[in-house]
Amino acid sequence: MNRLKLVLPKPEYKEKLMDYKREFIESGDSMDGTGGLRNAETFEEWYSAFCDNLKEETVRDGLVPATTYLAISIDDGCLIGMVDIRHKLNDYLLNFGGHIGYSVRKSERQQGYATEMLSLALIECVKLNIKKVLVTCDKDNVASAKTIINNGAELENEILEENRITQRYWITLD
């Protein structure tokens, strides 16, 4: 552990963020935990939404306040992954999305980074006074389920949504 640090996005990370987005689009992967980066036309558009979504007073319609972090390699400054912490849950998040979403770029997977990112995100949850954290994943995403379980989660149930099954895990923090 301690290969990564979570940092808040800043304009100086623009190039790294856009490269991260490009890698996900080229590989056809979903971009969980990126605060809507896939749908943003520009970094500036995404960064504006990121700033708005930090606070209840300015959060965009239909969303809950959330903080998106970049998981940066301590060794070389590479953007390894992203993690989004929702400060509270709405009905959809309670059933399908959870408090935390995350992704690791394809070129950095299967090295334990997701487990470390989730562990770091749980530290941030304590700071946000979130004592019981919901993390979800698709049932067929075995790697994500292992990441969640490795951080002390217990499976509560599975929910069928259209043609996919979402597993709902809870992690209790001290």
| Whole-number mean pLDDT | 96
How many distinct folded domains? Answer: 1
| Strand order within the widest beta sheet | 1-2-3-4
Fill in the CATH topology.
Answer: Aminopeptidase
By CATH reckoning, the class would read: Alpha Beta
User: What global shape is seen?
Assistant: globular
What is the correct CATH architecture?
3-Layer(aba) Sandwich
Tally of DSSP helical segments: 5
Flag low-confidence runs: none
Element order, helices and strands? EHHEEHEHEHEE
**CATH-defined superfamily:** Gcn5-related N-acetyltransferase (GNAT)
DSSP strand tally = 7
Q: What is the C-alpha radius of gyration, as a whole number of Å?
A: 15 Å
How much β-strand is present in the residues?
25-35%
> How far do the termini sit from each other?
21 Å
Helix content: 25-40%
Question: Biggest sheet: strands, sense, closure?
Answer: 4 strands, antiparallel
Structural class: alpha+beta
Index terms:
Aminopeptidase, alpha+beta, single chain, 174 residues, 7 strands, 31% helix, 5 helices, four-stranded antiparallel sheet
General description of the model:
It is globular, with a radius of gyration of 15 Å. With 174 residues, it is of the alpha+beta class. The two termini are 21 Å apart. The longest helix has 15 residues, at 113-127. It has helices spanning 14-27, 43-52, 91-97, 113-127, 142-149; strands spanning 4-7, 66-73, 79-86, 100-104, 132-138, 154-161, 164-172. It contains five helices and seven strands; from the N terminus they run βααββαβαβαββ. The strands form two sheets. A four-stranded antiparallel beta sheet has the order 1-2-3-4, sandwiched between helices. Strands 5-7-6 form a three-stranded antiparallel beta sheet, with helices on both faces. The model has no long low-confidence stretch (mean pLDDT 96). It has a single domain (4-172), classed as Gcn5-related N-acetyltransferase (GNAT) (Aminopeptidase). Pfam families: Acetyltransf_3. Keywords: Transferase. GO terms for molecular function: acyltransferase activity, transferring groups other than amino-acyl groups. Residues 4-174 form the N-acetyltransferase domain.
